[in-house]
Write a structure and sequence with these properties.
7 strands, globular, mainly beta, 4-stranded antiparallel sheet, 3-stranded antiparallel sheet
Length: about 100
Amino acid sequence: MAAVSIPLNAVAYQSLSVPLSGHVIRVVLQQRGTGLFASLWCDGAACLVGVLCQDRTWLVRKACYGLPGDFAFVDTEGTDDPDYTGLAGRFVLVYEEGRNV
């Protein structure tokens, strides 16, 4: 399956719910002084909390966390780690079903 791009806004804190792989996935992104951090829920159950987001690094990596796929940020202009100022363009959040299985 091809990766799906998740639309984001260039704000320091955001929470969004998206239907993916037959589940409702909630993504919370928070910019802190040490980087951008993600928390993920699947159908209302917390799966991962406070994961550091880095360029081209999968966030979940293991099926045991209860998510049907995995997420990664991609810098479209280089190899910098994401920060909130580029979330509406430069840094793209992608989802791939079955990636962590």
